[in-house]
Each structure stands twice: as structure tokens, then as C-alpha cells.
Amino acid sequence: MTRQDKIVKTSIIGIVVNLILVAFKAVVGIVTNSIAITLDAVNNLTDALSSIITIIGAKLAGRAPDKDHPYGYGRIEYFSSVIIAAIVLWAGITALMESWPKIFHPDVTNYTTVSLVIIAVAVVVKILLGQYVKRTGESINSQALVASGSDALFDAILSLSTLVAAIISIFFHISLEGILGVIISIVIIKASIDMLRETLDSMIGARVDSELSRKIKDSILEVPGVYGAYDLTLHNYGPEDMQGSVHVEIDDNLTAVDIHKLTREIALKIYKEFSIILTIGIYAHHDSHKEIRNDLYEIASKYEEVLEIHAFMVYEAEKLITFDIIVDFDADREAVKEKILSEIKKKHPEFNYVMIDDYDVSD
To answer: What is the separation of C-alpha 216 from the centre of its chain, rounded to a whole number of angstroms?
Structure first.
């Protein structure tokens, strides 16, 4: 079964289950005059609608690349996630507007044993559904499914709180419907904002996941002849389509044929292991002027803001030394770089220095 087929299958199961829950909860909410249960039914309806949008998004995102969109349509999945977040946000705001007055003017509720049993069953069903959808989403890297699964698990907790409020109402004759409705509304609004923030981060371009970055670099360093892997950048063209670039440090005496073979080996290795297409850049590794390089590293080590120095290169004829430096975003970057440059110039004034500013885009 393809990734798209798994998304569609999981979403259809979610739609069917949620529509059944909508029917049962709506009946119970109307019969018992419970605003909390009625709002819970509305929330299940938005969950079903979200699953429909997930299916549409997956179908559109699965279209093959063409002349106008050579990188494919994978990012459409992110737009579907934004639409889902907007729907959930609208549902939360609507629920809040309906629940707030109930705090001051509560309705009389009439719970029956049957209604309580239905709510209890709904809690169990939502837990099972949430776990299934979330696990499937994580296994195929689908933000929309993971969000839907997490939302379903949270719905189970909210339904459980409704059940508790019903029991309190029966035994203590205290109405918590309005308060509970407001709490549910706030939770729904927060969940939608979190979902929207996560999706927008993916669309804008968040930093490379540190664990993924570390795994890719470790994999590259397994290739014989590679001394270091730097400047890893990844561009997301959809949950299943990632491309990027990396610089590798290799011996400066390799021929063009040697470099061609080595970079091809690295690119194929990373694609097989991570399904990521990498463009490989080269830094030359040489053992001349070790004392200057060691002095530079020693100077940089005094500043905890400096995350890395690499690509050290000496051009003897031009009396020029170049190197890349990565300084933490939160530091006074320019001040730190000026101090390091000043110190290395004092130790080795016979050279000019070019410091190339790199950004901390991965760990």
C-alpha cells in the first residue's frame, strides 16, 4: 500500500467513526439538554470534515511533477493542514461563544443511564481511533494524520470530563455544563493554534531537525576519505520530498575523477538511507600550516558562542587564509567574530584573513 493509500484509508476510517459518534452524541445532547455533549458532537463533525480535507490534500499532493512544478505538489499537504487548523479554530471560537452564557444561565440537564453509557463508549472509541491515526501518521510522516490522531486522543479526555460533569450533576445537582463548555472551547482553540504554528513552520522553513542532521552527517563520515561534513541544508518540498546540500572535507590531492566517484557514493548512500537528494560541495583538507589552524581553534574555543569553525584553507602565494565560522544566533555575532579575527591576526600577522559567516541551520 502506498503512502497516499494509507492516508486515504486511515482518513476514511476516521470519517466513518466520527460520523457515528456525531449521531450518537447529538441525540444524547438534545435529549439531555447538555451543551457540553452537543459541542462534543460538533467537534466530532469537524474531525470528520478534517479527514475529508486530508484525503483531498493527499490526492492533490500525489500528482506527478510537471513542467510548471518540477518539484511536484507535495507542499499541498501543508495547505490542507492549514485549512484543517482554521476549521478547528472556527469550531473552538463558536463553541466558546455558545458556552460562555451557560455559565451564568445554566440549562437543566436530564442524563439517563443510556446517555452515560454512550459517552463512556465514545471515550474508549476515541482513544483507540486516536492511537491508530497518530501511529499511522508517524509511520508515514503525515502531519495531518498526526494532528488528527492527537486531536482524537484529546477529544477522549474532553469526553471523559463531560462524563464526570454528568455524574456530578446527577449526584450533587451542580451544573458544570457552561464551565466545561468554555474549557473545551479554549482547549480546541489552543490545539488549532498549535497545529497552525507547526504547519506554518514547515512552510516557511524551520531549522533542520537536530537528530536527522546528526544521522546524515554520521552517515557521510562513514565513507572512507571524508574528514568532515558541514553546512548541511535541507529544503522541504513535501513530507516525502526533501532535497539539500552539504560540504564534505576531503584530501586536496584527489583528482576530478576521484572526487566525482566519492561524491556520487555519498549522494547514493544518503538517498538509500534517508530518501534525501543531496548536492555535494567540496572543502579541501591539507596538513600545511597546522600551527595556524590549531591557534585559530584554540582562540575560538574560548568563546562558547562559537559553535564551529571549518573549511580552513591557506593560499600561500596570496598570503591569504580563509575559514568558515558558525556563531550562535543569540550571541553578539559581530563582536565575537571581530575578537577572534583580531587575536589570530596578532599571532600570525603575515597573512590576511577572510572569515566567512555561516548560519546555525542544523546541529
So the answer is: 18
